[in-house]
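[Meeting: bench + compute handoff]

Bench side (C.D.) handed over the final construct sequence. Compute side (W.E.) agreed to return the predicted structure before the next meeting so the bench team could plan truncations. Sequence as handed over:
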Amino acid sequence: MYENSPEPNQLVIKMDPTTGVRLKIDAHRADRTGSAPIELDVEFAEQGGEGPTPYEVLLQAAMTGDHTRFTRQDGVEETWRIMQPLIDNPPPVHPYAPGSWGPAEADELVAGYGWHAPWIAS
């Protein structure tokens, strides 16, 4: 990276021991010249209460027999059937320019489905 180049922006989702969100971005600040990192934190407990943890939600669902939070065995097996060939023989990675609509090879995936690059006013 270049000297003084900004760090990548981050959205951090906190799940344990309490839930919250942190947005870490480079922004222009009044107290210094140029941009500098700032952090915007939200602790859900401080903003109206802490909901149940993900583990508590799953435990409650298991105890009450709520199957909607769990995947059936046939669903798991079907997922592995689809994904295992990709894991065993991953497709090539096609680099593309930042800010573009992706690599030219992606056009082959959507050919015949009516996709076209969006019109952007300049």
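W.E. noted at the follow-up: The CA atoms of residues 8 and 53 lie 29 Å apart. C.D. will use this when planning the next construct.
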